[in-house]
Fold this protein.
Amino acid sequence: MLLNIENLRKSFETPDGSVLTVVDIPAFSLDSGQQTALCGTSGSGKTTFLNLIAGILKPDGGRVELDGCPISEAGEAGRDRLRARTIGYIFQTFNLLQGYTCIENVLLGMSFGPGADRRWARELLGRVGLGQRLDHFPRQLSTGQQQRVAVARALANRPKLVLADEPTGNLDPTSAAESLGLIRETCRENGAALLLVSHDRGVLDQFDNVRDLADINRAAAWPGAGEAKP
């Protein structure tokens, strides 16, 4: 089992001083190579859940074990190392560095893992159709092309798990279909598991395994759970 979660819990303080529990998940798991889509209403905690898995957020309680290592129990430096070695994250807003070229964005992603490998970076960008735009800056690319850079960067360290947060949300239908196919294909090629979050029914219908966050998250049934948008 690649990912194993037990009694994961995360709360936030609201503006009025009360505490809102956004994530309260008794159990969740993902096998190596498995591709799962996660759906849920806006504000239901999908992004918070991914950030807890990635170690970007530290849980209030519970355990996240990734590839046999308890990322939830590690210190900040340990979480950073494990994330760089094991996880590729495709953010909804891409999070590309605007002052760096395509290949530099991918190489910088590699620097947090085993180290920069220009040959592999060029190969990845070629696979996503950007072999002729290595030295272009994000502002010189279309939205779909920026998404492809984000995919290449997420796969740069050959992760065992790819997390994708609404990766098609900013794309037109044609680009969305191409991007989804690209993400799934590259995960299969690299043997990576995929956990993709989306509210788009057209995206969800492409997956054999779809989980509704409300079915696994006890917090989703609590009053006010859908009001926060972490």
The helical segments are 46-54, 76-86, 102-111, 118-127, 143-155, 173-190, 201-204, 213-216. The two ends are 28 Å apart (CA to CA). The beta strands are 3-13, 19-30, 35-39, 61-66, 69-70, 87-90, 161-165, 193-197, 210-212. The longest strand covers residues 19-30.
